[in-house]
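Researcher: Structure prediction, please.
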Amino acid sequence: METCYELFGAGPIKIGAQLYAKAFYEQFGFVQAGKVYDEDGIDHIPMIRT
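Model: Predicted structure follows.
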């Protein structure tokens, strides 16, 4: 995340996370930002950290 901020400024970070890892990303301040979607047969969710 520090590298993202250094390269692109202090804006929000958006990711596509595998659904089973949701709690992992929440530990770093990410929140779900949309509905579950399929990517290559694996459930994902959009997440954002502001």
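Model: The chain is about 25% helix and 40% strand.
Researcher: Thanks, that helps.
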